[in-house]
Structure formats: structure tokens, C-alpha cells
Design a protein that fits this description.
This protein is an alpha+beta fold and about 250 residues long. About 25% of the residues lie in helices and about 30% in strands. α1 runs parallel beside α2.
């Protein structure tokens, strides 16, 4: 048996799958391996040359695909579409497993976003009483061990307040966490990139152990509707991997 997956997540020369958590997809891999089957990823871009499982979005699917690579026939190809909506084969893509082995562990940096419905003054530990405007907020952090557990803790509404972000989380709506798994700490570089699309920063918030002016940024618009924010995610989640492909 052969399962075919459509892949539309790519940046620069690298494509990744899946773009959302898929428990069902992971179970399918296990069944296919038992039946000595295969899986084909079809990437809808002629520009890509490499394929990797998206260990940022779904580490469980990625780990399963990696572990079954000796029992499961795994292929990835790129195609292009013409004006008549006919597709044409471009090339088979290389799968640089060594990049996954280096970058796909439970460590790295993360973004937490949320919306504050009403302006508030909030006591934030040693920073004192701070004013938070109505709008969207982006917080940058890192955990070079147990990244998944750190994010899970942050997202709890009720907990002992330890980090600056713990004081703000209970007031935010629509909270989303975006992990960026990596072998190096990208927190300060991420903060600098997010500062370029933000409307203002909250001075010293989350940056007491570095030289950054802040690790919390205010943005009037929904960041997931902002082209600059999406480009930053693609850069740090996919684009930066390009330098590791030939490592």
C-alpha cells in the first residue's frame, strides 16, 4: 500500500509536513510499516530541493516517521502547475535526516501570542505595576530542556507565578503557542526580529537575564494576519535549516 500526502508548507528550498498535529497520520505510518508499505509526499513547489517532517508542529509524527524510515518506503517529490491546472513532475527531494537528528529534540525557543480585550494595569513581580493596552501581545522565551513542558506550564491559567509572562497569561484570550525547536538558543534573535513588526515593547519584560530591551511586544493587529510575522516564523522554523542541510 502507498499513502500520498499533499504538502504546501515550504520556505526557501525546504518543505515540511504536517502543518497541523495529526494523530491519525501517525497511526497511518505505523499501519503502513506493518504492511511494508510506503508514503509519498507531494510538494506543490518547483523551488524546493529538500523535505523534512515538521518537528516544530508535530514532534510525535516526526519521531514516528524517523523511527520507521528503515521499514517504510519514504519518498518526497516536487511538482509544478501550469495555466491549465495540469501538474508536472519536477524532481525527487532529498531527506536530510541528520538535520532532524540535530534539531528535532525537545528544546529550543517559543512564541506565545494572545489578545488583551481591555486595557489593564497589572502587577508584574519586580517590574511593578505596568499598563497593558488593548491589543495583541507576543512573548518570546526559550527552554533548552523540556520545551514541551515549559510551554504547557505557561498556558495554564492557574499556577504559581514565576516568570513575568505568568502575570499576564490569565488576562489573555485566544492564546497560541508556537514552538521553534532548535539546537541553539534563538530567543534574543527572535526578540529582535519580532521588534521590527511590533508597535511597542514592554520594557524589561522577560529580559532580565539578557541585554534585550524586552521579550514582550505589543501589536495592534492579529499577528497571524500579518505578513511580516508569518515571514519570521518561516525564517526561524524552516529557512534557518538551509544552512544545516550540507553540514
Amino acid at each position: 500500500p502507498l499513502e500520498v500526502k499533499s504538502c504546501t508548507l515550504y520556505g526557501d528550498s525546504i518543505a515540511m509536513f504536517p502543518d497541523a498535529v495529526t494523530l491519525r497520520g501517525r497511526r497511518h505510518l505505523e499501519v503502513l510499516a506493518q504492511q511494508e508499505g510506503g508514503i509519498l509526499f507531494i510538494v506543490h513547489s518547483p523551488q524546493v530541493s529538500f523535505f523534512l517532517p515538521d518537528f516544530h508542529t508535530d514532534p510525535d509524527f516526526s519521531e514516528t516517521l524517523y523511527k520507521l524510515r528503515g521499514r517504510l518506503r519514504i519518498k518526497a517529490v516536487s511538482i509544478k502547475w501550469d495555466e491549465d491546472l495540469n501538474f508536472h513532475f519536477c524532481k525527487e527531494l532529498s531527506i536530510p535526516w541528520h538535520v532532524y537528528e540535530r534539531e528535532g529534540k525537545d528544546r529550543g525557543s517559543y512564541l506565545i501570542t494572545g489578545f488583551l480585550k481591555d486595557e489593564r494595569y497589572i502587577n508584574v513581580g519586580g517590574l511593578g505595576r505596568l499598563r497593558f493596552r488593548r491589543g495583541h501581545y507576543i512573548y518570546i522565551g526559550s527552554a533548552m530542556n523540556n520545551l514541551k513542558a515549559r510551554i504547557k506550564r505557561h498556558l495554564k491559567k492557574q499556577k504559581r507565578q514565576r516568570w513575568h509572562i505568568d502575570y499576564l497569561i490569565p488576562y489573555l484570550e485566544g492564546i497560541k503557542a508556537v514552538p521553534i525547536r532548535s539546537s541553539e538558543d534563538l530567543e534574543c534573535r527572535l526578540s529582535d526580529s519580532i521588534s521590527s513588526i511590533s508597535d511597542e515593547y514592554i520594557k524589561d519584560f522577560g529580559s532580565s537575564d539578557c541585554k534585550c530591551p524586552a521579550h514582550l511586544y505589543f501589536i495592534k493587529r492579529d499577528p497571524f494576519q500579518d505578513e511580516g510575522f508569518i515571514e519570521i516564523l518561516l525564517k526561524y522554523r524552516i529557512g534557518r535549516l538551509k544552512d544545516l542541510v550540507e553540514f
